[in-house]
Structures are given as structure tokens and as C-alpha cells.
Request: fold
Amino acid sequence: MSAWQVEKPGPVDGGPVVLEQIPVPDPGPGELLVRVLACGVCRTDLHVAEGDLAVHREGVVPGHEVVGEVVVLGEGAAGEFGVGDRVGIAWLRHTCGVCRFCVWGDENLCPESRYTGWDADGGYAEFATVPAAYALPLPDGYEDAELAPLLCAGIIGYRALKRADLPSGGRLGIYGFGGSAHLAAQVALARGAEVHVMTRDPQARALATALGAASVQGAAEPPPVQLDSAILFAPVGDLVLPALAALDRGGVLSIAGIHLTDIPVLNYQRHLFQERGIRSVTANTRGDAREFLAFADAHRMEVTVHRYPLEGADRALRDLAHGRFAGAAVLVPATSRG
Reply:
């Protein structure tokens, strides 16, 4: 099968991923083999390709926003899904189930956690495997390409919104407005929030306005009102300071990315006093994923998608790195329903 592998992590313009012909994977015990119908191109894939995230598997196939059709059940995988079902493969792939974090319901913090497209091959390929216990049911009413960004951009944005502790009817600031942010904004708006967007990209500003943002301004510019909560989606540590400064008393800044450049020195009075807080976001739980996908089933979301053929994955990563589109990029194999 055709699959992209991270050959030598480095700058995306230097070609760190290469298209190869590799065997179709065999599903192990408890796993599903799926034919990939669509795979989102996530900024985390870019971090894996460029080496911002340490190599966990040599020659890994990136991709963890996978919409697929089950074609083979591994031994013992019978259960919720059968051959022919459409399923989602997300970032979280394995947790131990017995550590204190798993027992507490915080499986995203499990020290033994493993991830699709980092520890195991992902969806920049024609076929992929997933443990059946970590496969996700998908909402109806969406094309394959529309579903793909929901499986990381949507889920992580949803968890970041939960971590931001936004009060009912509160004012939410969003810093950066890409694939994840434009989905989290829709969840917040549907719940009655007032959303203010800070982004440098003209296309993203237009998208934010179209989705119903109350204000849109530059990435480091102050919003017109003080914020109850904020989410930083851009992996830019410099933006932590203006985001904290924009918070009202008791406000929370949630940092959504797996990677962030260094944060400058904070001023306690300006950035943290009056019980302002910062929270990071680490992956997600399966509970987060199912909650968000249930929301997407009940509330038709506008998913801004830019389609690329599987053979164009390297171009999609470069376009993502250079901010050449608003919304989400999705790889669509020729055999997909779109």
C-alpha cells in the first residue's frame, strides 16, 4: 500500500516525509484493520515530521484524524464494530487502565499512554489499524473529509474549552484560528458564549466573522472587553502574555497545543494576580471524544475543509506550516466517498 513515512525529522520544506510502498498491516489481537477514507492533517503531525516531538518510532506513518471503513476484525475484536462500519481513529491509542490516573478517569495522563501517528502508524496511508477499544463511533450527516478534523482538532478543542472553565454566557477569547479553534468556537457559540478571536491571518479572520465571533483582531491585540476564559491554539509562547492580560478576575487561560515555544517572563501583577490561572491540555480521554462527537451529532457543525490527495500529504504539511489556508486540511484517497 502507499504510505507516507517520517524518514528524517526536520524542517518541512526539506522533505522529512517520503511516500513509500509498504505492506498492509495485519490487525493484532483486539484490533481493527480499516481502509482509510480520509485523514486530517494536524499540526501535531507537523511537530512529528519536523522533530519538535521526539521520535518514538523510526519511519512512523503520521496521521491521527482517520475516518475508515472496517475491513478485518483481529482476534477477539468482535464487539461494537463490525466489517463495513465507519469508525474514527484518534490520537489516543492505548492506556494501561490500572494506574492511578486511569482509575481516576484521567487516562490522558497515563504514563503508559501511546498515540496514533507517533508510537504506531497512522492514517497517511491506504490502510491503518486501531485497537477496537479506542475506535470511535462517528456522527451521521457528514462527509468523510468533514469528519476527519473532528477526531483531533475537534476533540482537543473541546477538551481545551472544558479546561478553560468558561462560565455560562461568558466571554471567551481564542488566540489562533485554525482547524481546532474554528470547531471549539462553534461549541462555545452554541452554548451561548460571546467569542472574541485574535489571529493574524486574514482568511482566519474572515472565517471567524462568518461563524459569529463578536470581535476579530490581530494575534496580540487586546479584545474590546475583558475575557472570562481564553484558549491559546497558536503554538506561540509570546501570546501567553497578552492572553493573560486580557483575562478578567478569576479568568483561566487554557493552552491547547502539544508543543509551545518558550513563554516570556510573566509579571505577577499584570498576568496572574486576581486569581487568573493557566492550564495545559494533554491529549484527551475517550470520554471527551465521545462527548464531543455526540455534540457534533446533535449540532451540525460547519467544518472548513481543504482536500488534498493522499499523494499530496507533503504539500498539505507545507501549506499548514506556512498558513496557506483557514480551517483544516484533509487527505482524501481516490477511493474515498469524500
